[in-house]
């Protein structure tokens, strides 16, 4: 049995009085593609934000490659809250693509892709440039490298964001509703890139998505989240075509009629 | 009755002092504003507390009183001498305007969308790298127009230094007027014109920066 690359152990997360995650246990295997679906407010996005260290869990443990993400041991061997250095040493294996792209507007497309490898990984600039150009070519933007983000369409921005995240060669890539902010006609080009990545890769992927057909197509496993718990999970076909729980049935019906 | 060129020549003797105080104050207040603005958004409670105290004290009291305080009260009370009167003036003006301008710095930093910080965390940038490469370059663009406005205000504030005996435009104007009472209107009109001429490049700078800021850069 393969060791999981990411483990959530009894994760709880509250924002003020509202408990968003109520005990999440979840193992992600290396290379596994997991789709998170569920109604808004069910905690899908929070799950991946915790792994990216954008939010801190209220309780529970997240491990990446067996290393405790949010806690570290001090000199006496006691557990203390992780500092920036500890987080940085672990989250290098994690990458993320955001709903609203979050490209750096003051840098060109190429600079966006080159920044982190140059200053974080301290790689040779010419090497990085070469890799960045290849990566941008892969996402079909080799003619846009000198442009600034505000000169691109939403779909193009999202493809840049993916290239930028891939530059750090993460072992786990998180996708936070990456097509939700796009005009419908631009969704396809972004999904196409993700599909290529999924087919190509040994990279694990966690996708928060509302694209059910897409989840069915690329995911190894689908998780249905409802009110902060994993209500149902399993093979995409089982989950999306023959749902067991009433809530999931409800959700899928509402989803397809609203579309 | 003296002609306008004659009076102008007398006033221009004060140009040097006005310019020196202006340029030094612009530089020092900028440094103070950056340091204090960054301190206000730091994680260090002691630092933010201290800076907040400084900002409120200097915003909350008048510049003239601060000038007098540095010039007359500190030396008398604590035997602290700040050196030449020019430095006293520069220090008082810079601390006063630095306090105001630090609020622009703080505001601009806070107005960079949180998604920018999140994206740089996702790319594993350190706290310092996030500030240096992502937040500050974007914040500077946003703060420039407001910054230009404060430079103009600093220019106008330099006219106060005549009150602690520095020989600027206004000082020479006042001296001249006291012996040529009937020419007061001419003197003060000329002084106004001189200040306006000095402000012109700063006004131009502000306009230009407004355009730059408009071009930038909110949505990634």
TrEMBL record, chain A:
Highest taxon of the lineage: Bacteria
- SUPFAM superfamilies, per the entry: P-loop containing nucleoside triphosphate hydrolases
- Listed GO MF terms: ATP binding
**Where does the protein end up?**
Cell membrane
The similarity comment for this entry is: Belongs to the ABC transporter superfamily.
Residues of the ABC transporter domain: 6-252
- What is the membrane topology listed in the Swiss-Prot or TrEMBL record? Peripheral membrane protein
- For the keyword Membrane, the answer is yes
- Per its UniProt record, what InterPro entries does this chain match? AAA+_ATPase, ABC_ATPase_HisP-typ, ABC_transporter-like_ATP-bd, ABC_transporter-like_CS, Ectoine_EhuA, MetN_ABC_transporter-like, P-loop_NTPase
Which keywords belong to this entry?
Amino-acid transport, ATP-binding, Cell membrane, Membrane, Nucleotide-binding, Transport
Gene, per the UniProt record: ehuA
Name listed for the protein in its UniProt record? Ectoine/hydroxyectoine ABC transporter ATP-binding protein EhuA
Q: What is its main location?
A: membrane
From TrEMBL, chain B:
Alphabetized, the UniProt keywords read: Amino-acid transport, Cell membrane, Membrane, Transmembrane, Transmembrane helix, Transport
Q: Does the keyword Lipid biosynthesis apply?
A: no
Where is the chain membrane-spanning?
A: 20-41, 53-74, 150-173, 185-205
Primary location recorded for the protein, binned into one broad class: membrane
- Look up the domain of life of the source: Bacteria
Query: Does the keyword field hold Transport?
Result: yes
ABC transmembrane type-1 domain location is 15-200
What InterPro entries does the entry give?
A: AA_ABC_transptr_permease_3TM (IPR010065), ArtM/GltK/GlnP/TcyL/YhdX-like (IPR043429), MetI-like (IPR000515), MetI-like_sf (IPR035906)
Q: How does it sit in the membrane?
A: Multi-pass membrane protein
> Which cell locations does it reside in?
Cell membrane
Task: Cite a single Pfam family from the UniProt record.
Answer: BPD_transp_1
**Member of which family?**
Belongs to the binding-protein-dependent transport system permease family.
Q: What is this protein called?
A: Amino acid ABC transporter permease
Protein source organism: Sporosarcina quadrami
Its lineage opens with: Bacteria, Bacillati, Bacillota, Bacilli, Bacillales
């Amino acid at each position: 049995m393969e060791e999981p690359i990411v483990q959530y152990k009894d994760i709880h997360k509250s924002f003020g009085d509202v408990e968003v995650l109520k005990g999440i246990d979840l193992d992600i295997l290396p290379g596994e593609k997991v789709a998170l679906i569920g109604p808004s407010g069910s905690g899908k996005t929070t799950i991946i934000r915790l792994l990216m260290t954008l939010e801190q869990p209220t309780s529970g443990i997240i491990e990446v490659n067996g290393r405790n993400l949010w806690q570290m041991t001090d000199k006496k061997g006691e557990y203390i809250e992780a500092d920036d250095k500890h987080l940085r040493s672990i989250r290098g294996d994690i990458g993320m693509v955001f709903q609203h792209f979050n490209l750096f507007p003051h840098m060109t497309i190429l600079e966006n892709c080159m920044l982190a490898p140059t200053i974080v990984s301290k790689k040779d600039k010419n090497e990085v440039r070469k890799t960045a150009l290849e990566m941008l070519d892969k996402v079909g933007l080799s003619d846009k490298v000198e442009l600034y983000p505000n000169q691109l369409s939403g779909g193009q921005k999202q493809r840049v964001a993916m290239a930028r995240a891939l530059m750090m060669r993460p072992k786990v890539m998180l996708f936070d509703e990456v097509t939700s902010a796009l005009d419908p006609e631009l969704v396809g080009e972004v999904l196409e890139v993700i599909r290529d990545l999924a087919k190509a890769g040994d990279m694990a992927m966690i996708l928060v998505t509302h694209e059910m057909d897409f989840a069915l197509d690329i995911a190894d496993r689908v998780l249905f989240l409802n009110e902060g718990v994993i209500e149902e999970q399993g093979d995409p076909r089982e989950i999306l075509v023959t749902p067991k729980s009433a809530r999931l049935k409800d959700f899928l019906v509402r989803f397809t009629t609203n579309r | 009755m003296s002609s306008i060129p004659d009076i102008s020549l007398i006033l221009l003797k004060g140009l040097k002092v006005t310019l020196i105080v202006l340029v030094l104050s612009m530089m020092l207040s900028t440094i103070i504003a950056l340091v204090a603005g960054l301190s206000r958004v730091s994680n260090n409670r002691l630092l933010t507390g201290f800076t907040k105290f400084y900002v409120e004290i200097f915003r909350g009291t008048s510049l003239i009183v601060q000038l007098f305080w540095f010039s007359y009260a500190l030396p008398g009370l604590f035997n602290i001498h700040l050196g030449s009167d020019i430095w006293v003036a520069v220090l008082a003006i810079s601390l006063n305007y630095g306090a105001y301008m630090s609020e622009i710095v703080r505001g601009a930093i806070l107005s960079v969308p949180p998604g920018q910080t999140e994206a740089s965390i996702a790319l594993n940038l350190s706290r310092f790298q996030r500030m240096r490469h992502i937040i500050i370059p974007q914040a500077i663009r946003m703060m420039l127009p407001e910054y230009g406005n404060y430079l103009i205000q600093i220019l106008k504030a330099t006219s106060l230094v005549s009150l602690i005996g520095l020989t600027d435009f206004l000082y020479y104007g006042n001296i001249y007027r006291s012996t040529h009472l009937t020419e007061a209107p001419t003197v003060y009109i000329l002084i106004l014109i001189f200040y306006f001429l000095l402000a012109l490049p700063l006004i131009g700078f502000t306009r230009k920066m407004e355009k730059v800021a408009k071009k930038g850069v909110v949505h990634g």
